[in-house]
Amino acid sequence: MLSLKKIKHYLPLIPKLPGLYLESKVIRKNLPEMKNAPDLEGEILIGNDEFLNVIFIGESTISGVGVATNSEGFSGALSKILSEKLNKNVSWKVFAKSGFNVKKIATEIIPNIPDQTADFIFIGIGGNDAFELTHPESFRENLEELIKNLKQKFPETPLIFINFPAVEDFPALTPKLKKLMISWVKNLQKQMIDVASKERLVYFDPEIITFSSWRDKLNLDLELEELFSDGIHPSKISYQLWAEIVAEFVLNKEKII
Q1: Which of 9, 169, 177, 242 is most buried (CB neighbours < 10 A)?
Q2: Pfam families, alphabetically (predicted)?
Q3: How far apart are the first and last CA of the chain?
Q4: 3-state secondary structure of 41
Q5: Which pairing describes strands 89-96 and 41-44: parallel, antiparallel, or unpaired?
Q6: Residue 162's pLDDT band (cuts 50, 70, 90)
Q7: Which residues pair with 89 in a beta bridge?
Q8: Chosen CATH of 44-251 out of 3.40.50.1110, 3.40.1050.10, 3.40.50.12780, 3.40.50.720
Q9: Of all residues in the chain, what percent are helix, strand and coil, respectively (each to 5)?
Q10: What Å distances lie between residue 33 and 181, 217, 230, 231, CA to CA?
């Protein structure tokens, strides 16, 4: 049940909702059906005896929506970079599902992760909660539950929350929806920053990424549409760019490595 404070948070949106609903309905109708990538684990082998065990948890960006396999997506790309930079073999596993918000990840995915060792856990969230307009306080409560559930299974493993999705670049969104999503992501991000700052072994890169800025930084001759598989989800090159951003954050953070 929504508190009065939460209801007040939504009041300014009420006059805009009919138009935004129609716009979102048209967008959903025009988006192609995208599935989770089929491969849920893999290895990067470099020939020595040192191994890193890495787990990836989250929503569609972690489940490989937009690429044929997770090896081509964020999980595979980041695992390869970590292997190269740290000179270690990497064994990676994915526990993610498209369409899941933080609440569902906390209650339906994490409890079903088998007992195992993990050197790092990367979590990708925020997109579905932004699209669902989850209240920032509810998002925080669900986030705290997610962290608590993970720490019960992996008490000494660093939990690294990756950057929120680059909604500013989404070609499929109308200007009005894009403005709303950018604002909502920033509200959720504030909660993420605060929660991470108060939790042991929890890290979050607060940089709001835009693939367009990285395209320009790296002088890539690509149209914005080429950075997305369907106007919402990243393409193979965008997953690679995103993995490089996260790897840079992890490798430059002394407490993580």
Answers
A1: 242
A2: Lipase_GDSL_2
A3: 42
A4: strand
A5: antiparallel
A6: very high
A7: 51
A8: 3.40.50.1110
A9: 50, 15, 35
A10: 21, 31, 9, 12
- H-helix or E-strand spanning residue 94: strand 89-96
Q: What is the pLDDT of residues 166-218, one digit of tens each?
A: 788 888 888 888 888 888 889 999 999 999 999 999 999 888 777 777 777 66
28: pLDDT strictly greater than 70: no
Sign of CA dihedral 78, 151, 51, 250: positive
Number of other residues whose CB lies within 10 A of the CB of residue 99: 14
Query: Tell me, what amino acid is at 134?
Result: T
Enter the tokens of residue 121: 């856990």
Mean pLDDT of the chain: 88
Per domain, the residue ranges of the chain are 44-251
d(CA 93, CA 53): 8
* Owner of token pair 């660093």: 158
Reading phi first (left if > 0) and then psi (alpha if -120 to 50, else beta), residue 131 is in alpha
Report the interhelical angle of 175-198 vs 17-30 (nearest 10°): 90
Q: Which residue has the tokens 């002088």?
A: 219
Residues 6+ apart with CB under 8 A from 236: 66, 67, 72, 73
List, in sequence order, the alpha helices (H) in the chain. Answer: 4-10, 17-30, 60-63, 74-86, 102-104, 127-131, 136-153, 175-198, 211-217, 236-251
